[in-house]
Amino acid sequence: MGAQSAGPLVVGVDSSTQSTKTLVVDAETGVVVARGQAPHTVSGGEGKESDPQQWWRALGEALAQCGDAARQASAVSVGGQQHGLVTLDAAGVPVRPAVLWNDVRPAAESERLIAGLGGAEACAERLGSVPGPAFTVAKWAWLRENEPAAAEATAAVRLPHDYLTERLTGEAVTDRGDASGTGWWASSTESYDAEVLARVGLDAGLLPRVARPGEAAGTVHAGDLPLPKGALVAAGTGDNMAAALGLGLRPGQPVLSLGTSGTVYAVSAHRPADPTGTVAGFADARGDWLPLACTLNCTLAVDRVAALLGRDREAVEAGGGAVVLPFLDGERTPNLPGASGLVHGLRHDTTAGQLLQAAYDGAVFALLQALDRVLDADAAADAPLLLIGGGAKGAAWRETVRRLSGRPVVVPDAHELVALGAAAQAAGLLLGEDPAAVARRWGTAHGARYEARQRDTAAWERLAATLADGEALLRR
Q1: Which of 245, 373, 388, 402 is spaced 20 to 30 Å from 411 by Cα?
Q2: What is the crossing angle of helices 299-309 and 352-374, to 10°?
Q3: For residue range 27-66, what is the model confidence (pLDDT) as tens digits?
Q4: From start to end of 83-130, where are the E strands?
Q5: Alpha helix stretches (DSSP H) within 347-389
Q6: Would you call 307 exposed, middle or buried from its count of C-beta atoms within 10 A (0-12, 13-18, 19+)?
Q7: What is the pLDDT of residues 346-358, one digit of tens each?
Q8: Exposed, middle or buried, 93 (CB in 10 Å: 0-12/13-18/19+)?
Q9: Cα distance between residue 389 and residue 256, in whole Å
Q10: How far separated are the first and last CA of the chain, in Å rounded?
Q11: Cβ neighbours of residue 18 under 8 Å, at least 6 residues apart?
Q12: What are the Cα distances from residue 424, in Å, to 8, 33, 62, 220?
């Protein structure tokens, strides 16, 4: 059946750290009729930076791969990597490369800001989150401190998805979901926080308007992309909020995403405020909330351990008492920006496969520890974990999650959930529907179900004890 016969076409964009993906989707059925992908480069070394102009070029390349389907789209939405600091001059040209979410150089600026606002608990209550080094506000404070000329030349500050939406429409617009990851948008007032902006020397006039859920950002006016001029453009959102939309989440359904970074989140009807800073109290793209915890070290860190051991990533073995905390790039959850990896409990009979399994355990433990804080009282203790991201395809990841969580696990068949969520947002705007309900109609969360296993409390206790005892080393 031709997809066009069922309903209008929409485009969902996932502009991530490593690449831009585009999906052209039938708004009625959710059938993907075309897809494209183009890579990004990220600087190596201590800083993690990208030129925003390459995101725009990648968007054009990915859309071109979609052929005629993209040219027939009625609406488009962009989901983008969160937190990135995009600084533009008066002509809209980047002043310098964007500072990305996983750049931990602003650790000192983050600590100063938290202290200046009255400590972690006061920040959580006011902003919804404790603004760690990942947050855009810390990155702006770092830029002012370290590159004052660049800060002075900045006429507009944007998040990655805002930058692409503005180039599409000519309108400076963001949404509450992505804005909630800046540290200068307060969840308590759902608006930009004047005191935070004053503390970091940022004029509110440099920031985009925050669109309401379901509100359009504008229409396509850029002539250099294979999209129809005049097509509706949704406000877009952050990648985690887009994935939540893509799954059609209802409150209390926990999600564990295994990618370069790991995330655990759930939609909540209650505004979150975790004083420990473990959980970011994000807004979602619909009007609810998206409490979320993120670890920096997930699939990439475990793959690195596998490479060091000379083993295939699935070549794990049970048993042994070794513990691996794979904090190879510093860590955000727990907040240990200076940490390196820690191996404890090696014996003569420890095998390489056991050590690799211990690395999986360490990565999953960090996420599951945060899950209890993410879920509120409305969530069922035996609700299945939705497992998404690149790692969800791996048996070793799935079995580790089952063994350490004691919960059932569902692995959705749908991939590219950020782009699907952006497409659902575009479809919701076009059809006047709730985008999460659109995604549920598309059946995006359906997939293989794995029943609960007995929880491995011995491994859990070993990990918890090693993390507590090793804290002095991890803080060095």
Answers
A1: 373
A2: 170
A3: 999 999 999 999 999 998 889 999 999 999 999 999 999 9
A4: 86-88, 98-99
A5: 352-374
A6: exposed
A7: 999 999 999 999 9
A8: exposed
A9: 8
A10: 61
A11: 39, 40, 42, 260
A12: 12, 14, 19, 18
Average pLDDT over residues 63-83: 97
Residues 6+ apart with CB under 8 A from 169: 217, 218, 219, 220, 221, 222, 233
Distance (Å, whole) CA 283 – CA 414:
24
- Whole-angstrom Cα distance, residue 43 to residue 50? 7
- Residue length, the chain? 476
Q: For residue 103, how many other CB atoms are within 10 A of its CB?
A: 23
State the pLDDT confidence band at 5, using cuts at 50, 70 and 90. Answer: very low
Q: Are 217 and 164 in contact (CB under 8 A)?
A: no
CA distance 414 to 24: 14
From 239, 274, 284, 329, the catalytic residue: 239
**Active site annotation includes 239:** yes
Q: Which two tokens stand for residue 87?
A: 């600084």
Structure confidence at residue 266 (pLDDT): 96
- What is the distance of C-alpha 206 from the center of its chain? 24
Helices and strands: H and E segment counts in the chain:
17, 24
Give pLDDT tens digits for 257-290: 999 889 999 999 999 999 888 899 999 999 999 9
- HSE, CB side, 13 Å, CA atoms: give it for residue 68: 2
Q: Which amino acid is at 341?
A: G
122: helix, strand or coil: helix
State residue 291's pLDDT score: 96
What are the distances in angstroms from CA 76 to CA 24, 158, 289?
9, 19, 23
| CA dist list (Å): 120 to 113, 126, 170 | 10, 10, 37
Going by pLDDT thresholds of 50, 70 and 90, the confidence category of residue 2 is: very low
pLDDT of residue 1: 31
Least Cα distance to 252 among 385, 444, 436 occurs for 385
**Residue 23 has which token pair?**
């999906």
> How far is the C-alpha of 101 from the C-alpha of 83, rounded, in Å?
5
Cβ of 1: how many Cβ atoms within 10 Å?
A: 8
